[in-house]
Amino acid sequence: MKKLFFSAFALVAIAIATSTTVFAQNEKGTKMVGGAAMYPSKDIVDNAVNSKDHTTLVAAVKAAGLVETLKSNGPFTVFAPTNSAFDKLPAGTVDMLVKPENKAALTKILTYHVVAGKMDSKAIAAAIKAGKGKAELTTVQGGKLWAWMDGKKLVLKDEKGGMSTVTIADVYQKNGVIHVVDTVLMPK
């Protein structure tokens, strides 16, 4: 009897896991980021907290007090650095930035990764075409980013001359779109 119960339990667990996966695959526009489904029906924060590749970004957003902003209607375009992007910063930088006394500096960096509006890859490509090969984007922080195509890769340049590449584009959210980037962008 116990064996039958555990077999039935295992079958139910498999059915639930399968139906969740099928739901993720069936919701149009769902992409996998950091091992988690990013649902277009959820907001930026509700999706990002599930990505194992964005734990540093999520912690930074919380430390900066930007959770409610990124849960609002937006729309926003977020260039979301991965944990490995933050790891490229000099040792101790992230720990220093998330301290309460550095909230303004952290907020400046994070809002530099956000552009008002929903700019998916088609919109960015159109801006690049209109800019004759390069687009200038104004961030929520007030700074500028420059975008262009390098072959099939979308590349961003920050105000300090740093370069970042979009590794996963067009992760649609209820309140915007995320583009995963491999390097933290830095304002002046």
Write up what this structure looks like.
The chain is an alpha+beta fold. The protein has a single domain, classed as FAS1 domain, CATH 2.30.180.10. 39% of the residues lie in helices and 26% in strands. It has helices at residues 2-26, 44-48, 55-64, 67-71, 83-87, 93-97, 103-111, 121-130; strands at 31-33, 36-38, 76-81, 114-116, 135-138, 144-150, 153-157, 163-173, 176-181. Strand 6 (144-150) and strand 7 form a beta hairpin. Mean pLDDT is 87; it is low at 4-25.
List the helices and strands and how they pair.
Layout: H1 2-26, E1 31-33, E2 36-38, H2 44-48, H3 55-64, H4 67-71, E3 76-81, H5 83-87, H6 93-97, H7 103-111, E4 114-116, H8 121-130, E5 135-138, E6 144-150, E7 153-157, E8 163-173, E9 176-181
Parallel strand pairs: 3-9
Antiparallel strand pairs: 1-2, 3-4, 5-6, 6-7, 7-8, 8-9
Helix pairs in contact: 3-7
Short description:
This protein is α+β, with helices and mostly antiparallel strands and 188 residues long. It has eight helices and nine strands.
